[in-house]
Every structure is written in C-alpha cells, then in structure tokens.
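Sequence and structure are kept together here, with a separate record for every protein. A complete record is shown below as an example:
=====
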Amino acid sequence: MKYLALTLFASMLFMATTASAQNLESLGGQSGVLLVRTVPARPTPHQFVTVIIESFSIDLDRSNISWFLNNNLSKDASNQKTFSFKTGGPGSTSNILIVVKTFEGEVIQETLNIRPATVDVLWEAESYVPPFYKGKSLYPFQGTVKIVALPNIVTAGGGTLSAKNLVYNWKVDGHPATAASGYGKNFIFFRGDIPLKAANITVEVSSVDQSYVAEGNTVITPVQPGIVFYEDSPLLGVLQNRALFGNITLRDEEIKIVAIPYFVGVTEREGRGLSYNWRLNEQKITGSLDKSALSFRQEKESAGNARVSLEVSSPSRIFQTVTSEISLLFGNPAGVSIF
C-alpha cells in the first residue's frame, strides 16, 4: 500500500485580488503516483472548489476511485477523477481522502487538507489631497505608492502566525524585488515609470521554515492628476464646497482664487519641486509670493472677460503635468489687475 499526503492551506486576499497559503507535508510511502490539483489553485473561505487527480503511471480510467470528505464517503463522486465541495471559514479544515484501487489490485491513498486563511493587501499613494478630503489619495502617473501585506494565517492548532515573524518576497510585474524582500518586510514602496501602465504587485508570505506560505497580489492603476479652482473668501475661507469652472462672474470688486492640485506626487500643496505657472490672457504672471493662489481686482467699469490659466508641473515627473483654466467676467482684459 502506498501513501502520500499533501496539506494545502488556502488563503484569501481582500480589497484587491486573490491570495493563498499552503503547507505540503509527506506522510511517507511512494510519492508522485497521483498528481493532485485544485480549481481554483488557491481556494478561499466559503468557496466551491474542485479537486482533480491525474496520473502518468496508472490508468485512472480503469481504476476504482473513492472520495472522502471529513471521513464521509461521497457517493456522487464515485469513480470520478474530480470532486467538488465548499470550503469552510478561516481556520477550518476540509480533510479529503482519495482512495484509488487500480485494475491490477494496487491501492493508493492520498490526503488533502485544505485550511482557508486570509491576507489583506492595502496600498496608499504618496499624492496630495486637501485637508478633510473624504476620498482616497490616488496613485498618479510616475507616482509613489506604499503597498502593505497583512497576512492572517491560522495554524492547525488554531493560533495565528505573527505578521512580523514571517518572510516576505515581493514581485513587481513578475520581477523579484529583492531589496524590498526579507524577514518582517511586510511593505514595499513602488514608483511608476515609463511606459505608463498598471502595476501588478505580488507578495509571497511564508513562515521561516516554509511550512506555511501565503500569496497575494494587487493591480494598481495610475491616474492623471487634476487642478480644481476654489474661491478664497475673506470671511469663510476656501469654499471647497463649490468649485470654480467655466465662466465666473465677479460679483465683488475682488476675488482670490486658490488652486488645489489633486493627486500630484507631493504631500503638501506647494511641495518641494512643484512648479506653478499662472497666465492671464496668455501672459505669464510673475512675482506672486503665494504659488497656489492669486487675487484679482476689477479696476474699470467695462464689459469683457479675463482668461486665467494654470500649469502645475514637476521637472522629475513630466507626466504629472496638469493644466486648467477659467474665465473671469468682470471687465475687459485691460481692466483686470493682479495683487
């Protein structure tokens, strides 16, 4: 009689993609008689899974095949080379016993123990958003993003492996990130480059003895930064509940306009290396102490409009360059002054 046991710990990745954890352990006897695989390859909690067996040394079509799930014989899968079932929750175990009796009378047994686990993979972009912004800082072209792996691998005894005591092997688009990998390194910094495309980040998490292995990945897609103009009221401050776009009619003698560069690769609005280039009717504006804001005053009572445009750029990240413009309706161009 020949025995082969495989213990597979599957894990799940939330927020982004799929993940897995597995532990292979031989119980003795001849190995390699049956090839066992699951679909999906790395099952998740509460998921339907199909186990498939193959062999290059015995004729399974002429063999008697029995499947046991948690010591219960499955009559529906009798003499089938596949078996389907639903996994339990994290920390649970699905014990599968496969018994094959060949045409020649030889008996082969293989066991498969599936224990679902979880791995969360989260990311945070290094990009600007204004204070109290309720959304997420998005990952801009040529931007920098931090990816964190949060494994939750439950052992057979019911304990959870500590994230700081695990080994992390990171890959970016299939290429090993050796410098960022190692013991306790559960995060990686990634900077986008040219050509502009989504990044596929994969992490393999394992115990020191490699008896437990978890794998997760996420795809991060870059976005184009953008500029939004707001009015800075002397009494109420920046009116971020009302963006300025298109044609803006000046109801008062003066207006102060603030530009918010959403998702550019800095953490401060006027961060280091960020350039603001304002123009009024195609004429460059210089001498302003406040790079991200300008004040305009109507000096004459004449109809017309003034075109205000802004380009925000970073010399080291040319694909983060962004432009926007508005028109101020409060007099002809000659009647508009900047202060």
